[in-house]
Structure formats: C-alpha cells, structure tokens
Amino acid sequence: MNRRKALGLLAAATGAAATGAAVGDAASKNTPTTTSAQQPPHDHARPEHVVVIGAGILGASIGYHLAKRGTKVTILEKTRPSSGATGDSFAYLNASTKPVRPYYDLNLAGISGWRRLQLELNGTLPLKWGGAVYWRDEAQAASQLLSGLHDYEGWGYSGYQIDGTELHRLLPDATPGHIEAAVFYDQEGTVDPVGAVNVLLARAKSLGAEIEHPVEVTGIDATTDRVRGLKTTHGSIQADAVIIAAGLGSQSLANLAGVKLPLTQSAGVLVHTTPQTEFLNRVIFAPGNTIKQNPDGRIVSGGGHEGSSLTSTAQEQGEQILKDASRYFPQLKSSRIEHVSVGQRVLPTDGFPIVGLLGGYRNLYVAATHSGVTLAPIIGQYASQEVLDGVLLDPLTPYRPGRFT
C-alpha cells in the first residue's frame, strides 16, 4: 500500500475525508481530540538531564533542540543513526497530502521548521526547495488531483495548475507522455534524511550532547508517576526526563513502562542509484512513479507515494521501478542501482501523530508519527518546549497518547 492510500484509509477510519475529496471545515473537526484530563501534568522543575531514545530524524531533531537550550542531553540508539524508517524514507517535505486541517497545519509548520533549521545551521542541511510537480494521464486521477489542489489553495497553500508548456519549463529533461492534468506545489522540497540526521547529531554533539550507539534500553526504572532512569546494555543511566523517539521500536519501549502504544507499519520499496549529474531539482509524482534527486546526485524512486509495497524480490522490484522511471527521464536508462531499500514506515493506528506524556508519567514523553521527516523540526521544537518549560502546546492537543485509553 502506498503512502497516499495508507493515509487516506487511516484518516477515513477517524471520519476524515480521503485525499482529493472536499475537506473544508467539517473535515477539520474529525481530527482525533484529547481533553486536558488525558494529558498528565508536566513537572514544573526544568529537567537537568534528558535522555532521548532513538537517533532517527525525530530523535536527532529533539536532541538538537534540547541541546541548544543548554540542557544536558544523552541520545541512545540501538544500532546506528538513521538505521530505521528514516534511512529508507523518500523524505518529501510537504503538506499537500494531508487532507485534515489541523494535521495539514502541523505539516506546514514542519516545512517552515526546515527553512528555520537551514538558517540556524548555516546552510549545511542537504535540502532542495525546487517544489513538487504532479501530473496524471487519466480523467479520474486528474479530477482528484485538481480537487485536492482546490482544497489546499483554499487553506492558503501555495500551488497551481500548470499546462504542458509550463511542465516542460519546470522539467526540461522530462518525457511526460499524455497529460490530463498537472499541478505544481512550489513551496515543497526534499531532504537527504541520513545527511540531515548526521548534521543534527553533529550540531547537538557540538553543543554538549552525548550520543551512544549501539546500545539497547532493556528496562525503565520508574515509580508510580515518574521515571528515574533507564537500564541499558551499557549499564544504568539516571534521567530527569526520558523521550521515546524510536520509530517502530517505540512500541516495545513503551511496553517496558507498562504502556501500550498503538503503532503499525507499512512497507515501502525505494531504488537508489549511484550519483548522477544533476538534472532534477524538483520532486516528481508521475503516473506510477515518484522520483527525486538528492543533493549528492543520487536518484531515489518508488512505484508510488514514498515507495511501493514489496511484490517480488527487492532487487527485481527496484529494477522495475527504475525502468518505469526511465520512461519519464530517459537518462536514467544508463544509471546503475546502488541499493534497493525496503523500509518499514511508522503508522499510528489512526494515522495521526502520537506526541506527549505517556501513561500517566510526569516525565516520560513519546514522539511517534508518520511523515516524520516533514514533521521533525516542529516536533523537535514543540517537544523540547513541553519537556523543558512544562507547557502544553495547543497544536499538539489532538495528538496526545491519552486518546487511545
């Protein structure tokens, strides 16, 4: 199942409109809601030492945002940084695939967060801001594409319909075939997620954060409502607060604290080529293919939004994906596959993020979400504010863990 279908089905389960349908004010009321009673109170005393479990894009962002506030931070990673869903992500930075208004707003804040980080980190993040080009070759898909554009424009999102001439101007090397409808979302972009994690961790380390890997958390030392520390394969660690940001591994970590975290997963296959001469500055959503080029020249492509489900051997499927992509960019016919990734994307069971204090504990926090790359900067900012300042941020209200109890 591709990402767009997965999000559509999961949003439908909560009464949300499917992608491309009318999503106006009524849809915004279908976001999961959490009352203040479902979110346990934060400690008022600022924690001196925060342990972050997970060194994917969320953990790296949270760790960086904590470290820049002068907090003592320890980041623990079970294997190596970016070894989970982050390393296998298509990493498309967007809000145009989010048909529920509060979730759209959160992703839009995530896009702004990447631009903020690029300024803070002096342009060292491997980002591209060329926008995203969509086109469809049959009537029903074209109608859905334009309906979605209409709704997102109504929310103030920057995008517009384009014709074949404009598409060729944006993508001079493309051979798109028949175009029933096309759209350009000009404020979107992409990032090399592994490179971004490396930059964020390096910056956090320069600010005093400690990063340990490989190390596994094997137990949580807790009282009735407080975590005192962690048991790991390297020994015990005392902590004033703990943040779980370990992707699918967050489930087993929550279990250590006696809390259930409702996560599922969705496989996605992506083909990665060796570096190519730069020819593509935009993210491409062609019929049957997604294609982008990372700043290092590598092409990343999938059979659907953020990759396709595994239907044969990974290598065979990767070869087919690249062959299909070469229909739109003939220069890919001579490219070589470097590797094929089969990622397991994190999917909270209702399709929306899970962010906040966990299981009645005053200092055990969790951040688990789909679209983790887009959301990483804003969740890093928000989580650090909530943990360090004891505030409850309104934009996170619908996404508290307590909504599942």
In a nutshell, what does this entry contain?
The chain is α+β, with helices and mostly antiparallel strands. It has helices at 3-13, 25-28, 57-67, 101-120, 139-154, 164-170, 193-206, 250-256, 314-325, 372-389, and strands at residues 49-53, 72-76, 92-93, 127-128, 132-136, 160-162, 181-185, 189-191, 210-212, 217-222, 227-232, 235-238, 241-244, 263-273, 283-286, 289-293, 299-302, 337-348, 354-357, 364-368. Strand 16 (289-293) and strand 17 form a beta hairpin.
Layout of helices and strands, plus pairs?
Layout (H helix, E strand, L loop, with lengths): L2 H11 L11 H4 L20 E5 L3 H11 L4 E5 L15 E2 L7 H20 L6 E2 L3 E5 L2 H16 L5 E3 L1 H7 L10 E5 L3 E3 L1 H14 L3 E3 L4 E6 L4 E6 L2 E4 L2 E4 L5 H7 L6 E11 L9 E4 L2 E5 L5 E4 L11 H12 L11 E12 L5 E4 L6 E5 L3 H18 L16
Question: Which key features would you list for this structure?
Answer:
single chain; 405 residues; alpha+beta
